[in-house]
Amino acid sequence: MYPNIEAERARKGLTKEQLAAELEVDRKTLRKWLRIGNIPTAKIIQMADFFGCSVDYLLSTSNENKPA
Prior knowledge:
By secondary structure, this protein is mainly alpha-helical. The protein has one domain (about 5-60): lambda repressor-like DNA-binding domains (434 Repressor (Amino-terminal Domain), Orthogonal Bundle), CATH 1.10.260.40. Helix content is about 60%, strand content about 0%. It is built from 5 helices and no strands. The protein has helices at about 5-10, 15-20, 25-35, 40-50, 55-60. The radius of gyration is 11 Å and the shape is globular. The two termini are about 20 Å apart.
């Protein structure tokens, strides 16, 4: 559902388990968020900070990586 989150995860060489650990959530929780698109705002912000990009970029389907 969020290809840019997956792209950033892959760019950093992280598994889904490692990203879940970084976000301090269970792997199943992260998988559910990515599948149904119901990611808590605080976790989206945390991901944007971690990946060094904007929230808009993470939530979009655009390839344009906008600065945070």
